[in-house]
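Summary for the steering committee. The consortium agreed at its last meeting that each partner would contribute one worked example illustrating the joint modelling workflow. Our contribution is presented below. We chose a case with several input lines so that the handling of multiple components could be demonstrated. No manual editing was applied between input and output; the record is shown as generated.
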Amino acid sequence: MILYDAHHLAPCYAVRLLLGYLGLTAEIRPVDVYPGRQNRSEDFLAINPLGTLPVLIDGAHVITDWQEILAHIALTYGRAWYPAHDSALIGWLGLARDLDASAGLARMSDTFGAAGDAVAARTRGNALFDEVERRVWFAERAGQDWLTGGAHPTIADIACFVCIAPCEDGGLSLRDRPALRRWCDRMRFHPGFVAMSGIFPPMANTAR
Amino acid sequence: MTMLEPGKWYAIAADHDLPHNHIYRTALGGHELAVWRSSDGGVHVWQNRCPHRGVRFSLGEVVADELRCQYHAWRFATSGACTFIPAQPDMKVPGTIRAVVWPVALSGGMVWTGIDPAGSPPALPTGAIVRAIPVSQPASVIAQALADTPLAGLTLIVQPQDQESAIVRGIAGDGDLARADRMLTALRRRIEQTA
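What follows is the complete predicted structure of the assembly.
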């Protein structure tokens, strides 16, 4: 597999995170989006005319949608991470797109000057965070650790996590969302977790 | 600077907010707090600030019975005393390096703290602890709204966070958490829209 990647983009992180959890490796080809705008170069547009990242090439497959990449990797290499029996998967993936367009946009606006209405994005992001907080809190009461139930996270958790965990970059906060903070910890402590800028790996097992 | 009433106990978390190996984060009366549970089940309420470089403890990690700061991995025992500085592993850590430790009481399924709190926290009725709801209005506004229009079946307490926000906590006497949640989120909408 070849992954065209920009480290700081949440959708790219989602793919790296799924690869980590599944113990897979891909050849990472970094693309300098900020400030280099390499994603608008003719070379990159020849691969993905939309100029978006990530892009995954796996054999004959060239996939340019981040959630389709997650689905492809899960269906091909770790089917349990794509809970096809659970219609909530569709809801969570859609919600994750909304999160990326709100909390994610606020983060890209504040950190990289991306175009868009960051104030409106934060308002929408806060409303979505409140709803995810409510769902996760009640899931915990029912003994469920993950968004779609089951014994481990799925691509639903990954898609939402990458938009929620780095939210303070975009002026949102998890302080008064304790269930989301616990869920983020569960993601961090799940075997195979990989970190990114601002999202710390577990350090409990490092030597004193 | 504080907006807290000395001698009073304030509920700042529910028991279920504190799984092992987790650092809960909240604010009380303008003070940021980090709350964590050691392996003996004890709960610790600290100012959310490492005495070294001021980084929030809630970014760090619980390691056995110590809290480790994310920044330079200084470790702090349950007493608040710094026990180990990785950059100077052979140095005996001066006793003056300490986290700021707050009083703590566990009662009624809640974690309580305050400034020189006296006696025991107030007794709560039996029931289920409802989901805590943050509200972007001062505690006084929320308390007035609750006094004007009590919510049937709920015993509620308000945690002042800062001058502009508070958290509503409480007990549902009938144990119906979903009903309580609908009532409290409606209360939140009403207070935030009308204020």
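The domain at 10-113 of chain B is CATH 2.102.10.10 (Rieske Iron-sulfur Protein). The radius of gyration of chain B is 18 Å.
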